[in-house]
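User: Sequence in, structure out. Go.
Assistant: Echoing your sequence, followed by the structure tokens.
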Amino acid sequence: MAQVDWYIEGAEFSNCNCDYACPCQFESLRPTHGDCRGFAAVRIDKGHFGDVGLDGLGAALLYAWPGPIYEGNGEIQAVIDERADDKQRDALVTILYGGETNEGATHWWVYRMMSNTIHPPLFKRIEIDANIEHRKSRIVIPDVLESTARPIRSPATGTEHRVRINLPNGIEFDLAEIGSGTTKTLASIALDLKDTYFHFTVLRQSGKGVVRSR
């Protein structure tokens, strides 16, 4: 059966429990504290799943692994914009749980394959107020998650410190601005993060992987 053609373009915001130089981005052996847990949310500017439009919707994925992602035994849970209709909900759940995607082509596919606990999706209001250039954001999923991010500041001078990560062959993004994130979950996968790795990026994903020219 032919794979459904899908595409998502929009701002992505991700916070995990690692130091600002997240070891996963550098193919390091272990996460900063041994385990990996966090979330990523996307505000979709343009998207489709087959003939189902996804423009203007939001989605998030919460995740946790007892060790590095590549060792598996993780858990994930998708949160889908409550404004989505049934077809849009099914489409976004499929994408975030790695469906209709080439093997290893997206971070969502990897997260699904490395998790043996797949929680049922939640359908909630997703509020995102963010500015990638200024490296600031506030993300609220009522009764589930609250997150804020700010620029990294030098511990010596207190001045803003700007860092980017460039992954020409990455499966999630080409270029991301790095900030300092603080996130707490009220339900779902437990997160209690303070001033840890946070990235801001423009996501351009399809079932074949990152779209580098569109």
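User: And one key feature?
Assistant: The CA atoms of residues 8 and 132 lie 18 Å apart.
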